[in-house]
Amino acid sequence: MYDQIMKSQYSFEGLKVTAFESRRANEIEKLILYHGGVPRVAPSMREVPLSESSEAFKFAKELLAGNFDMVILMTGVGTRALVKAVAEKYAVNDFIKALRKTTIVARGPKPVAALREMKLKVDIVVPEPNTWRDIVATLENEADIKGKKVAVQEYGISNKEFISALRKKGAKVTKVPIYKWALPEDIGPLKDAIKSIVLAKEDIALFTSSQQIYHLFEVASKMGSKKKLMGGLKKTVIGSIGPTTSETLHRFGLSADYEPDSPKMGNLIREIARIGPTLVNKKRTANKNGVSTSNWRKVDMIWSKGSHKKRKEITRNSVFMKACRLEKTDYTPVWLMRQAGRYMREYRDIRSKMTFLELCKTPELAAEVTLSAVDRLDVDAAIIFADILLIVEPLGVGLEFSKGEGPRIKRPVRSGKAVDRIKDFDPESLQHVYDALKITRRALDPNKALIGFAGAPFTVASYMIEGGGSRNYENTKGLMYKDPGAWHVMMEKLTLATTTYLNNQIDAGADVVQLFDSWVGCLSRDDYKEFVLPHMKELVSKIEKETPVIHFGTGTGALLDMIKESGSQVLGLDWRVDLAKAWRQIGYDTAVQGNLDPVVLFSTHMEIRKRAKKILDKAKGRPGYIFNLGHGILPKTPVDNVLALVDFVHEYTQK
C-alpha cells in the first residue's frame, strides 16, 4: 500500500519538465516519466579530452618523483581520464603506487568508486553536498595543508575560487586539467528547449551542473534570445542539483526554486516531483502579482492582492484551523515542532553567518527561515522562528546563548528582592518578532496557518531562576516552597507579559498561538494546582478570543486533565503518553496534537510509517487531531525522513 502512496505523492502530475543533462540523458528522461512528468531532454554539453596531455604528464612525472603531498580528485570521470592520459607515457602500476604514497582526497562517492577499481584507498572523503567549500572545510578539520604540495584534478573549467582558497590556506597548488566542456555537436534540441521556455510552455527546468547554465545562455545569446529566456524562466520553476549549480544560477540573476538536501540526480527528480505542482502554482501566482521571480527570496512572495479580510477567511477555513476548532477535515493536518532548525541546510547556511540571537532579531531572515521549512516540508502550518526566552531580555535579567551550552541567564532571580527588580514588560522591545510575523504572513500561502508562540510562565520562570538548564529545579522549587508570595508575584508578572506578547503576535498576523511549558512536568499535581494553574487560566482567558491556543508540555501525562482546565483549545502530547488513552482522559471536546517520538525519525522509512500509522489509527479520524512530534526535531535528523513522515500522514489520512 505504501509504495502506491509514494508513487502518487511523488508525481509531476503531467507537468512539462525540461532537463539539460547530457551523459545521463536517457536516465533522467526515464526518471521524469516514472514520476509522471512530460520530459524534454536537451543535452547541453559534451566532454572533450584535451588534445595535449602535457599537464597530465607533468603531474605524473612529479608524482612519481614523490613531489606531491596530496592529490584532490574532483570527479569519477576525471579520475579515470587522468589514469588513461598518464598511461600513454608511464606505467599505470607505478602511477598507482605513487598515488598510494600521497594523501588522496575524493570529492564525494564517484572518485571513490573510480579509485576502488584501481584498488586504491581514499584517505579523506568530502561529505555532501561536495562543494569546493566543503572540500576546504573538510581539509581544515582533517589535514594541515600549509606548505604542502597539492594537486587538483580539474574538470571542465578551472574553479578559481577553490584554487584561491587552498592557496590562502598555505597550499602550493598545481592544477591538473584533464578535459574541457564543449557544446553538443547538435544544438538543435537545446535551441528548441530555449524557444519552449521563452513561450512559457515548460513548467520546470532542471539543472544538474553549472556548465549547463553557461551553455544554455551561450546558445540563447547566439539566438538573440537571452533577454526572452530570462523572461521565460521567471514563469518556470528552476530545480538545481546542489549549491555550486545554485551559485551559478545566482551569477546569471536567477535563483533555484528547489535544491535537494543531497546533490544526486535521483533526489532532485523525486523531491521536485513531490511538490512540483505547488511550486509551479506559487511561481506563476507571484509573477501574476508583480513579484520579480528572477532572483527572489521566500519573503518576496505575494499570494494575493485581494483584501486582508478575504485572506483571513481562506486561512480560517484551512485544514489546520478547522482541526483546532474540532471541525471535520479532508485529511489530518501536520506540522512539526522545531521544523525550522539545524537539521535543515537552509537554516545552517544562514546561521553560519550570524549568531542565534542575531537571526532571531533580523525579521526578514527569521521569516525566510520560517518559510523555507514550510516550502521544503509542505506542512500545513508555519511556526515563526524565535525563542521562548526572547521575552526575558526586556525583563532585565540578561540573556545570552553560548555555543554548545544553550541559553544562559546573566542575573538569575532567586529571591523576593530579585523578583521585585524584574522590569515591567515593554511590548515594543520585541517588535522584531512582530515584524517577522507580518512578513511571514504576507508571504505564506493563505491555506497554511501561522503559529506564534511563547514560553509558558512556569518554564520561563524556571529558566530565570535556575540561570539555564536544570535537572531537579532546586532553585525554582526552593523559591516556590520558601517564598510562595514572591513566586506568585513573579508568575503574575510573567503572565501579564506573556499575554501582552501573544496578543501583539496575533495583531501582527499569527493565526494560532502555542504555549511551550517544556519543564512543567517536573511538578506534582498538588504543586501544579497551587503554583501554576491559576496563572495559566488567567493567561489563556486574556488571549484574543478568536485565536486558538495550543498548550504543550513534556512529561505532563499526570497533569493533562488539569492542564485542560486552563481553557486551551488544543493540548499537545509528548511521546510518553498513549494518544488514545490521553484523549479519552482529556475528553473529545478538546483538540489534541502529537505525538511521535522525535528519535523515530532516525530510523527507516518503513519504521517511521509503521509508528506514524499506529498513532493515526489511535486518533480514529476524529475531528480535532493534529499530527506532530512529541517534542522538537533533533539537529541531526535526516531531511528525507521528515519528508517521508509528512507525506505519509497526508496520504494515509486523505478522505
What does this entry show, briefly?
By secondary structure, the protein is an alpha/beta fold. The radius of gyration is 28 Å and the shape is globular.
List keywords for this structure.
Rossmann fold; 3 domains; TIM Barrel; five-stranded parallel β-sheet; 655 residues; seven-stranded parallel β-sheet
What does this molecule look like?
With 655 residues, this protein is of the alpha/beta class. The protein folds into three domains: 2-45 and 185-296, Rossmann fold; 48-182, Rossmann fold, CATH 3.40.50; 308-653, TIM Barrel (Alpha-Beta Barrel), CATH 3.20.20.210. It has a seven-stranded parallel β-sheet with strand order 12-15-16-17-18-19-20. The protein has a five-stranded parallel β-sheet with strand order 6-5-4-7-8, with helices on both faces. The longest helix is centred in the C-terminal third of the chain and has 25 residues, at 484-508. The chain is built from 29 helices and 20 strands.
